[in-house]
Design brief:
This protein is mainly alpha-helical and 169 residues long. It is 34% helix and 5% strand. The structure holds heme C (2 copies). The site of one heme C has 24 residues, from helix 2 and helix 3.
């Protein structure tokens, strides 16, 4: 049950990141009136990738998707606030938060521009797209994958540069 809930959470976080048209279907609501552990959550003021009218619940699904996927807490990306034990969620002071935005755009682009062109018929919907967890798997920096010895023929794991000028997308 709990695992199901987590999967649904991560999946809906992925949807928020990947599916532009879903914006219109997402529950609309002001993020002012929801109470957090330290009183009401302030209205969001600094969203550049997520929809500005995202509901508080959907925003928290995305944020919990981040903490779970990277194995971190909120303060990994969010800078301390003026009061002790508070975070200034709108602040962009921490480089990790700015990198996370780049990662959100990258993840969206991988799904929208590239994986949308691939259709493996028997792939389950949640396997047809990448999420933060696809690469991070519980680590803040993805662990390097080394194939087991029987499959490792000393080949480089990186892709060489394009052999001609890349075509415009
Ligand atoms: C991996 C980095 C990362 C982690 C971990 C993270 N966040 Fe965020 N958070 C972001 C980014 C990036 C944004 C801005 C998204 C955008 O620009 O659309 C954001 C935005 C927010 C905002 C909106 C702030 C505003 O006013 O614009 C809130 C609230 C928030 N996060 C809460 C949390 C909470 C609570 C947690 C822990 C459960 C958390 N975040 C964990 C990266 C993170
Ligand atoms: C395709 C694989 C991939 C996906 C998907 C991905 N990441 Fe990353 N991420 C990386 C790699 C590789 C690095 C290390 C990049 C570097 O240092 O140059 C990284 C670095 C980061 C860092 C910086 C860590 C640090 O120590 O400063 C953050 C934060 C981060 N990713 C958040 C996210 C979030 C949030 C998502 C989902 C929206 C995400 N990533 C999706 C591969 C990925």
């Amino acid at each position: 049950m709990q695992i199901g809930f987590i999967i649904v959470g991560i999946f809906s976080a992925a949807l928020v990141l990947t599916a532009q048209p879903l914006r219109a279907q997402m529950p609309q609501g002001p993020s002012t009136s929801v109470n957090g552990p330290h009183g009401p959550w302030p209205k969001t003021t600094n969203l550049h990738v997520l929809p500005k009218n995202i509901s508080h619940d959907d925003l928290m699904k995305v944020m919990h998707g981040f903490t779970g996927s990277l194995g971190v807490k909120c303060n990994y990306c969010h800078a301390p606030g003026a009061q002790p034990r508070h975070l200034d969620f709108a602040s962009d002071a921490k480089p990790e938060k700015r990198t996370a935005r780049t990662m959100m755009r990258m993840t969206r682009a991988i799904n929208k521009k590239y994986l949308s062109r691939v259709n493996v018929a028997d792939a389950k919907p949640e396997r047809k797209q990448v999420t933060c967890g696809t690469c991070h798997r519980g680590h803040d920096i993805p662990v390097v994958f080394v194939p087991p010895p029987e499959h490792n023929h000393g080949m480089p794991a990186t892709i060489p540069p394009e052999n001609s000028a890349p075509k415009p997308e």
